[in-house]
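Support reply, case 0932

Customer input (verbatim):
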Amino acid sequence: MGDLAKIFKAYDVRGVVPDELDEPAAEAVGAAFAEVTGAESAVVAHDMRESSVPLSAAFVRGARSRGVDVVYAGLGSTDLLYYASGSLGLPGVMFTASHNPARYNGMKMCRAGAVPIGGDTGLTEIRDRAAELLASGGALAGGGATGALIEKDLLQGYAGHLRTLVDLSGIRPLKVAVDAGNGMGGHTVPAVLDGLPIETVPLYFELDGAFPNHEANPLEPANLRDLQRAVVDSGADLGLAFDGDADRCWVVDERGESVPPSAVTALVATRELAKHPGAVIIHNLITSLGVPEIVREQGGRPVRTRVGHSFIKAEMARTGAVFGGEHSAHYYFRDFWYADSGMLAALHVLAALGEQDRPLSEVVGAYSRYHASGEINSTVADQGAALDRVRAQFAGRGEFDELDGLTVTGSGWWFNLRASNTEPLLRLNAEAADETTMKAVTDEVLAVVRRVSE
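Our regenerated output:
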């Protein structure tokens, strides 16, 4: 077993099994989770990885050793775990490594009501207590009564709840290609879409944590090719791609073209503002300028945040925002305990398309106003020096903002350059009113960054 400090990240736990994360560690984390949260009961779910069943079972043993009753939901998506935490009023843990390769696994933790547990809200304490238990061999030495184990299938409750949040009763028949990437979408999507006038063209619905067809990461364009081809070949109205734990959803239009998550954010924001006039909409600083523009045009109040689900969720709770969107295809809903759900965002897209007769490309065209580079990563040994060079390069050419990394906004263009929290990478996102300017800004920033890295 490796160092727990290595696998406890800012928002979750993630590491290679069994070298960095094994059953004794999971058991110790279960006991520590029980102690730190003070929970009397908790809910646990897991994804389809081969290691998820033994690891989650070990966590349950640890939690029960502290007298905690555990509701064991078994297979589920991460947003199913959030539904369980919210609807049951229990803290919860999801065993998943999302889109990471098969050798990884991890945990996403929340308090009752799907309130996230991050580095500054309990995760560090859980890590430190688990390390103490491992060092002393005391994970099972609770000394009190063992908590109960309650197995509960929550899939139908989850599906039914999502269907109450989006009215799909009047949509026209649609054909939808869905790429589950051998991840949890193959388990949840059929339950959610059951009974709707939707013909599904399924790709890779077989649960397989080895990901035999492609990585379950729709942010990588290569992983969308099979879906894009299936949409065109089948004449589907749209395509949906989910990541491994199915909390993110990427949309493809009827031409097989990617729909930027910023356009989906603006579309869903518009629909939520129709229900909640004047409400707050959260967007991170890498979403398109079109998002706050459209939110204001619809009478809403846009609020800009740093990148990352803990920042989004905290700001949503602070402001009472009805919806939040990120460039990474994470979408957050007040009506879903401020948690993110790719499936719920997908239902909004299906409703928006099915309520009228135009193709999706026309529907989302109104929400795509700028040309974006997408996220471009550069390996950089000295991130600070590279950022300093970029500051010098663009001095006097725009407004500087350091809310999260470096954002420079000029006339008709902007870019953001952020350091990765976990890798020696700088991440660049650029956008402009026209493609020529966007490419020129992107190339100039990359030239400076990569010259520094050589």
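We compared this against your earlier run and they match. Two observations from our side: The radius of gyration is 22 Å. Residues 43 and 84 are 7 Å apart (CA to CA). Please reopen the case if you see a mismatch on your end.
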